[in-house]
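> call design_seq(struct)
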């Protein structure tokens, strides 16, 4: 079974991103979950899987300028995840830094031959400075006390840091870097993306980088770099000097951890801190409600971290080479879950100790059949050409069915639940919907609509014949639209 990046879906996202950048506009992103699909696109482009995006820093700078510096900034976007960590971001990775670097990259590409040398020198020292600014900012995103809630922010900062390193490795020779400089960048990239024997220690890398930054600061005035920007470089230089002296400000002994290991460790730590909300109905009178609420909280945590942290980390080790193995695409295709909405946990494949597993994708959903009146009485899903299990009653309630064309999929599911599964609404990408149930015995609202994902499975946890009869819980599974499986295709990679 072949797995590949979906050309149709990735090209759409890439087109939106490129148009926003070319037109000097900002991407309208208000939900933190929306960020993930665009970053996913850029990372896939860096691995050569999405044409037109670019394979390094320029793509990341454009992306970040597209959503990070708009009025609803990163502070606002991540407010619900960050709690009391406003001070962590500081002012090191700022809009001004990104806009300047973006313009310098553009100038370098457009300059005539006689102006190329000055443009090259400006690009080189700006790259050096921004790389070190980002390096200096990283410890602020992983202070021990707030490591879990700030992990999505850390992942975005790590994306920028690694993109800067990759561009230096790929284009440093053209920009005037020495062989030793490029070797240092490569050593730092390796150190940040995979645990390896023989990688130069953090202090050695910081020493090399601080030397380059000191030279950049000394020549900045001659290249007309704004004073306020140079002042931030000086702050970063002081931070690097502190690193070489042994005082990094990075708690938890995280300096020696590569980024992939770090995010997985903190993700697991966060699973031990998940807060369980009380169910909308009492567990004493409605057995299974408490168990469902518990797994629902873990599903919400897992899905958010997978979309906005773990998926990024899967790309990181392959950014420099630009090639990604099929096994990684399979991991990126991991199904995320929402629910159980209602009661009981039958069919849940995750727990309070284990996250969602990595499994092969099955045939796409082609139809949904629901029976309901006061509440939901029955449900069955058609996968490809075959109907799945019949959940609940196939006789009670009123029957409704919504078939999907080849280019259609469900992306937004509304659920009403409580004592029973009171009602559902399946909404597809062509603005067609199926609504069932009057929510007589389940009026608490929930929804599942992860951006860039589509519904790939649905399960009823339990059905009761006793009054009031009906289904009692619902689990929904989603996989990324960016990835598709071809049962008869062994090639992998990107489709045509």
């Amino acid at each position: 079974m072949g797995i590949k990046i979906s050309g149709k879906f990735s090209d759409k996202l890439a087109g939106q991103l490129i148009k926003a950048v070319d037109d000097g506009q900002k991407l309208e992103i208000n939900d933190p979950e929306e960020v993930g699909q665009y970053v996913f696109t850029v990372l896939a482009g860096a691995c050569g899987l999405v044409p037109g995006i670019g394979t390094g820093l320029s793509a990341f700078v454009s992306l970040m300028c597209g959503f990070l510096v708009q009025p609803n900034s990163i502070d606002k976007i991540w407010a619900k995840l960050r709690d009391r960590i406003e001070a962590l971001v500081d002012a090191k990775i700022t809009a001004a830094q990104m806009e300047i670097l973006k313009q310098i990259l553009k100038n370098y590409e457009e300059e005539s031959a006689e102006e190329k040398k000055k443009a090259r020198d400006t690009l080189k020292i700006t790259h050096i400075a921004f790389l070190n600014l980002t390096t200096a900012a990283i410890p602020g995103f992983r202070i021990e006390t707030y490591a879990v809630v700030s992990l999505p922010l850390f992942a975005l900062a790590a994306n920028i840091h690694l993109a800067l390193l990759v561009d230096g490795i790929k284009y440093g020779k053209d920009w005037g870097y020495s062989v030793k400089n490029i070797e240092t960048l490569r050593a730092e990239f390796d150190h940040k993306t995979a645990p390896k024997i023989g990688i130069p220690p953090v202090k050695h890398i910081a020493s090399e980088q601080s030397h380059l930054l000191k030279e950049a600061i000394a020549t900045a005035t001659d290249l007309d770099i704004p004073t306020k920007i140079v002042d931030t470089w000086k702050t970063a230089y002081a931070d690097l000097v502190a690193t070489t002296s042994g005082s990094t400000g990075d708690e938890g002994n995280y300096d020696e951890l590569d980024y992939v290991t770090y995010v997985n460790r903190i993700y697991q730590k966060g699973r031990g801190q998940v807060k369980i909300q009380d169910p909308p109905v009492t567990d004493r009178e409605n057995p299974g409600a408490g168990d469902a609420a518990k797994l629902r909280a873990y599903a919400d945590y897992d899905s958010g971290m997978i979309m906005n942290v773990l998926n990024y980390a899967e790309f990181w080790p392959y950014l420099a080479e630009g090639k990604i193995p099929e096994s990684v695409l399979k991991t990126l295709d991991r199904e995320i879950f929402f629910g159980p909405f209602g009661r009981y946990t039958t069919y849940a494949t995750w727990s309070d100790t284990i996250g969602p597993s990595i499994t092969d994708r099955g045939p796409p959903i082609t139809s949904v059949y629901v029976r309901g009146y006061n509440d939901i009485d029955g449900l069955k899903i058609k996968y490809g050409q075959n109907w799945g299990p019949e959940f609940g009653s196939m006789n009670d309630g009123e029957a409704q069915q919504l078939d999907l064309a080849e280019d259609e999929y469900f992306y937004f599911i509304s659920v009403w639940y409580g004592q029973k599964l009171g009602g559902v609404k399946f909404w597809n990408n062509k603005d067609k919907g199926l609504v069932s149930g009057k929510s007589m015995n389940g009026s608490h609202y929930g929804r599942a609509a992860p951006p860039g994902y589509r519904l790939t499975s649905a399960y009823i946890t339990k059905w009761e014949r006793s009054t009031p009869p009906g289904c009692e819980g619902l689990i929904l599974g989603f996989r990324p639209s960016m990835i598709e499986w071809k049962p008869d295709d062994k090639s992998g990679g990107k489709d045509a």
